[in-house]
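Structure (tokenized):
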């Protein structure tokens, strides 16, 4: 028995595609975590080294590396990225319209 599947095209934001009410903050957290992971790899930093540089616990660095971000705040992610990579500048823009909001995160 073969089940026919329907192709559904999404956007570049999987959180918004699922109508997640926290889509904007989850997308921003994911973008920041991706950049932190890139810096960790680029600098070949261990979890212990990264935790010491960022002044946070090793378990938080581990959660970031494993993309388990529910208990990690946006503030923490911004501060970790700042501590690990002085070349990045975090620019956060929030657009608000009734019943519709969006957040744009730019790193450079």
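Design, position by position:
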């Amino acid at each position: 028995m073969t089940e026919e599947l329907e192709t559904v095209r999404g956007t570049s934001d999987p959180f918004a595609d699922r109508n997640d009410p926290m889509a904007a903050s989850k997308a921003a957290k994911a973008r920041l975590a991706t950049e932190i992971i890139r810096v960790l790899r680029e600098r070949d930093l261990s979890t212990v080294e990264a935790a010491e540089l960022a002044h946070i616990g090793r378990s938080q660095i581990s959660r970031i590396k494993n993309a388990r971000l529910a208990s990690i705040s946006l503030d923490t992610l911004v501060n970790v990225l700042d501590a690990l990579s002085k070349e990045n500048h975090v620019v956060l823009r929030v657009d608000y319209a009734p019943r519709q909001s969006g957040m744009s995160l730019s790193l450079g």
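Reviewer-requested clarification: Helices lie at 14-17, 23-43, 47-54, 58-65, 74-84. The first helix runs from residue 14 to 17.
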